[in-house]
Structures are given as C-alpha cells and as structure tokens.
Amino acid sequence: MKKLAAGTALALIACAGAANAASHETISACLITKTDTNPFFVKMKEGAQAKADELGIELKTFAGKVDGDNETQVAAIETCIADGAKGILITASSTSAIVPVVEQAREAGILVIALDTPLDPIDAADATFATDNFLAGELIGKWAAAKLGDAAADARIAMLDLDISQPTVGVLRDQGFLQGFGIDLGDPNKWGDEEDDRIVGNDVTQGNQEGGRRAMENLLAQDPEINVVYTINEPAAAGAYEALKAMGRENDVLIVSVDGGCPGVQNIADGVIGATSQQYPLLMASLGIEAIHTFAMSGEKPEPTEGKNFFDTGVALVTDEPADGVESISVEEGMDLCWG
C-alpha cells in the first residue's frame, strides 16, 4: 500500500507539473490587416500589440499590400497555421474568398476572429468584433439628408465605395447610408443595383486617398453637379476633397465618411468632411487578443452582443454641425475618443 500510495502521489505531482507547464506555455496569435498604411489598421495593430504585451502573448502581424489583396492574407493564415498560433484576428480584404483557408485554421483548432469586417458568411469565423457598419452608414445618411432638408429630394449623390469585390464592410456602410438618406435599396447584400435617379454612380477607391481622388474625378465627369459624396473611409474622403477643390467645388458639396480616426476628425474641424461615423479599432483589437487568451486558457469562445450576430464595439456620429433627429458628438469629443 505504501508503494501504491507513493506511486499515486508521484503520478499526481507529474500531472500537476505538466498542467502547470502547459499553463505557462507561450501563447501565440496573429493579426492580419488589409494594409499596414491605413491609419485605422495602424492603430488596430498598436492596440493588439499593447494587449499582447500585457498578457504575455507572442503576436505576429501581417498585412496585404493593398486593400483587396486576398492572396497575401491567405498566405498569412497558412503561416499562422504552420506556426501553431492559438488565435487569428483578421480584417479580410475579400470576405468570401478568404473563407476556405479560415476553415482550415479552425479545423486546426485555431480561434479565428474577424475584426471590423464580417466574413461572408459571418459564421465562417468563430466571432466578429466590429462596429455596426450598417448603422454607421445609416447615421451619416440621416445626417446628410437632414442637412439638405427639402433639397435632399433633388440631391446628386456620388458613392465612393471600397472594392469591386464588394467586401461586407463596404456593402454594409453603402447600404446603410442609402437607407439613412431615404433611398430604397435593391438587394441589401450588394451595392449598385438601386434605381433612384439621385445616385450619379458608384466607383471604387481601395480605401486610400489616391483612389478617392480618382473615383471622384470619374463621377464628376459623369455629373459635375454632384452635391453629396458618400465615402467608404476618411482617406478616400480626403482624395474626393482634392478632386472637388481642383474644380472649385469644395465648399458646396457635403462629404460624409466612416472611421472617425484622428486625422478624419481633424478633417471635420478643417471643413473637409461634414460628418463621420466613429469606430474604435484599438478596442476591437485589444478585445480580440483578450478573447484569444481566454480561449487558450479555458477553451471558451467569445459570445456576440445580445440580439446581434457579432460583438458590437460601438459607433458615434461626429460633427460640429448637429442635425435635428440625429444623435451626434462634437469634434472635441471625437478627438478625445478617436482610435479608442
């Protein structure tokens, strides 16, 4: 009996030692963004790295060469699988084309969380941490319609979208804006099929300033009387403003956008943008790292916000020209919160 008891004790000590070693094993995670130049994704990376450092997680970061670069993102996920990552955070450039390799990662036991941009279908990822992008678009649409008042019935609208592949984030913001403005949607799962004559047309920007300028020039060539410009994000809005300024139209066109980054909020103060819907990428990324840590320690996966199929990280309309019936915060408040 003494030998049996001693053997059992040794076995228990060995098991405890193994469990303790496992609990102290380095957890690795990956962050994969659309680009590493857009300030939105730069801040996302900062948030992820800060939280990873706090929790002792080894973080590897990857980014596409340009918005829409699915191939580089696929290769990044394959690298994360090979490296034995415990979790992957991704803002997908092509929300449907990325799904097969995401499935491979999940089959390998990796937690995959979409940040900002839901996959298509959304449940292709284990979880999504994002702004309600449809609501973000709806807020700027309502604001633009309210600012125009009766003139909204005769608006000439330019739609500066993201990419021809129509990733979910671009569709949600576009369709939200149109609904907020009071325009009937076609298929809400895609943009460009609306029949309202107020829409001059859609063009794509790749979410950058040069793309925004080029897209704005193309649409102005179709109709130089454009007086409302929806933009997928603030770099695209800055490019649109350049094109309008070259025509002397910068002071008589409403430009609205989404992101609420610090440069974008400053552009409201400077009169470049009328209003923007503010997101919180640092929060998205830090929550994502926390979720990976929890999963690594307990196997528990994050739950969505009640009543939604994603975890809602919040949105606020930022403007210094409040409109009746549209809740907003000031530029000063937006600067305090930007990138949060």
Explain this structure:
- The chain is α/β, with parallel strands linked by helices and 340 residues long.
- It contains 11 helices and 12 strands.
- It has helices spanning 2-23, 39-55, 70-82, 99-107, 133-148, 168-181, 209-222, 234-246, 262-269, 281-298, 331-337, and strands spanning 27-33, 57-63, 87-90, 111-115, 127-130, 157-161, 199-204, 228-231, 254-259, 275-278, 311-312, 316-318.
- A 6-stranded parallel beta sheet has the order 2-1-3-4-5-11, sandwiched between helices. Strands 7-6-8-9-10-12 form a 6-stranded mixed beta sheet, with helices on both faces.
- Helix 6 links the parallel strand 6 and strand 7 (199-204).
- The longest helix is centred in the N-terminal third of the chain and has 22 residues, at 2-23.
- The radius of gyration is 23 Å and the shape is elongated.
- The termini are far apart.
- The relative contact order is 0.14.
- Residues 1-23 have low confidence and may be disordered.
List the helices and strands and how they pair.
Blueprint: H1 2-23, E1 27-33, H2 39-55, E2 57-63, H3 70-82, E3 87-90, H4 99-107, E4 111-115, E5 127-130, H5 133-148, E6 157-161, H6 168-181, E7 199-204, H7 209-222, E8 228-231, H8 234-246, E9 254-259, H9 262-269, E10 275-278, H10 281-298, E11 311-312, E12 316-318, H11 331-337
Parallel strand pairs: 1-2, 1-3, 3-4, 4-5, 5-11, 6-7, 6-8, 8-9, 9-10
Antiparallel strand pairs: 10-12
Helix pairs in contact: 2-10, 3-4, 5-6, 7-8
